[in-house]
Design goal:
Elements lengths: L6 E4 L5 H12 L3 E6 L4 H14 L3 E5 L5 H11 L4 E4 L14 H29 L2 E6 L12 H21 L4 E8 L5 H14 L3 H9 L11 H12 L10 E4 L7
Parallel strand pairs: 1-2, 1-4, 2-3, 4-5, 5-6, 6-7
Helix pairs in contact: 1-8, 3-4, 4-5, 6-7
């Protein structure tokens, strides 16, 4: 599934699922642009590390995905975009009546609206080339819901709907758009939550993972960031030329319940 000669942009990709996607795209031969809100030496060092490991071009470009102009400028600054992975996202948990307005606005902006702005900027070039792949990282919460996650669930459901509209508007033009819906993925953020959960529930590591964190994931196993990245690569390959406007669940059976 070689992607040599393609340029991929992955938003929110200096860690977690985004970094997993960037690494697997680079492994498949694509030149990659990674992104986050920070602009630290270690961000640029990460790009250099990926480039050296896979023999491709990898650049780090800072952009704030809550700001429409910066979302669109990211595509322009990259100088080309054959593959767009909309991954940037944040979370906040609270009851609806206690949910801070600024948190709602930020989650909708970063988790949903940023994908609209980057896609709008990338589509003209994809159409001109007659080839493009857009992969939106949604969530099991784009297909189902949990209490106290109103903004996240609303945004991810919206992202699934936006995926379908994008697919319909690009059908027959060599461009596809799909959404990946992960369950729990073992990212650094999730890993950092395990000790606190162990303490709160008085459980050992394996028990708290199985009975608390993965309560809704029937496999009782985390997905990995490399598995997520491999799914992205598949959707960008020729094997997936006729897969568009759909969701792929990588959730250990969560949404089968």
């Amino acid at each position: 599934m070689s992607l040599k000669g393609r340029t991929a942009i992955v938003t929110g990709s200096n860690s977690g699922i985004g970094l997993g996607a960037a690494e697997e795209l680079a492994r498949a031969g694509a030149d990659v642009v990674i992104n986050s809100i920070t602009d630290r030496p270690e961000d640029h060092a990460l790009a250099e590390k990926l480039a050296a490991a896979h023999g491709v071009s990898v650049r780090y470009l800072q952009a704030d995905m809550s700001k429409p102009d910066e979302c669109r400028a990211l595509i322009e600054r990259a100088g080309g975009c054959d593959i767009l992975v909309n991954n940037a996202g944040i979370q906040h948990v609270a009851a609806i009546e206690a949910f801070p307005t600024e948190k709602w606005d930020a989650i909708l902006a970063i988790n949903l609206s940023s994908a609209f702005h980057t896609t709008a900027a990338a589509l003209p070039g994809m159409r001109e080339k007659g080839w493009g792949r857009i992969v939106n990282i949604a969530s099991a919460h784009g297909l189902t819901a949990s209490p106290y996650k109103s903004a996240y669930v609303a945004a991810k459901h919206g992202l699934v709907g936006f995926t379908k509209v994008t697919a319909l508007e690009t059908a027959g033009q060599g461009v596809t758009c799909n959404a990946i819906c992960p369950g729990y993925v073992l990212t650094p953020l999730v890993e950092a939550q395990i000790p606190d959960q162990m303490k709160a529930h008085g459980m050992d590591r394996e028990t708290v993972i199985r009975e608390v964190m993965l309560d809704r994931q029937p496999s009782k196993q985390f997905a990995t960031t490399s598995q997520m990245g491999g799914t992205v690569v598949f959707l960008c390959s020729a094997h997936a030329d006729q897969i568009t406007g759909t969701t792929i669940s990588v959730d250990g059976g969560w949404t089968a319940l």
